[in-house]
Amino acid sequence: MLKVIDKEYAPTLSIDIKNIQVKVNDEIVQINFWDSCGNDKFAFDTPNLFKNASIAIITYAINDKESYKELEKWYNMVNEHSKDSIKYLIGNKNDLEEKREVTIEEGETFKNNYIDIKIFLETSALKDNNMDKLLENIAISIYEKDKKLENEEDNAIRHTITIVKEDFSKKGKKIKKGCC
């Protein structure tokens, strides 16, 4: 049913655009990811990334409780600028289980407190853990949205997915190359 045609993961240093093609039911779904590293230097422009986004991925690091505490701020910002986007909650860096500060239950609780968050999933972009599952869910959501709009006069939808992450540098932690 679904096949990822092209995917590449690399750390985000500022704002990055990634294009991924996924095949769903013999049709190509082009996904444009606007990836914000969450760094305060780029925060002024982050709300502009949300405008008309089909999907917003709100991300925290499972090994940093402070990033989890920022979720409500990011959720509210997404809701303010792109209320109709499909929202995903992602606990990233699940390859760092031994350094976990945020439990799976805490992620599930946040998701359950906001009924418009479609999915909660823990991933590791570095180790490619659950990334295909996330891409599959996104591609199917976009495919289904297109099919619903197929009969409407103007079906020129640009599917933009915004990834929102918190930068932890202001808390005195060492910044690594990238934020993923």
Describe the secondary structure blueprint for this structure.
Blueprint: E1 2-6, E2 15-24, E3 27-36, H1 46-50, E4 55-61, H2 65-69, H3 71-81, E5 86-92, H4 104-113, E6 117-122, H5 131-149, E7 160-164
Parallel strand pairs: 3-7, 4-5, 4-7, 5-6
Antiparallel strand pairs: 1-2, 2-3
Characteristics:
5 helices, disordered N terminus, alpha/beta, disordered C terminus, 180 residues, Rossmann fold, 7-stranded mixed beta sheet
Q: Your description of this structure?
A:
Helices cover 28% and strands 28% of the residues. It has one domain (2-171): P-loop containing nucleotide triphosphate hydrolases (Rossmann fold). The protein is an alpha/beta fold. The protein is globular, with a radius of gyration of 16 Å. Residues 1-14, 39-44 and 166-180 have low confidence and may be disordered.
> What is the helical fraction, as a range of percent?
25-40%
Give the structural class: alpha/beta
Characterize the largest beta sheet: strand count, sense, and whether it forms a barrel: 7 strands, mixed
CATH class: Alpha Beta
Straight-line distance between termini: 28 Å
* Number of strand elements: 7
CATH superfamily: P-loop containing nucleotide triphosphate hydrolases
Enumerate the strands of the largest sheet in spatial order, edge to edge or round the barrel: 1-2-3-7-4-5-6
Total number of domains: 1
Q: Report the radius of gyration as a whole number of Å.
A: 16 Å
Residues in β-strands, percent: 25-35%
Average of the residue pLDDT scores: 74
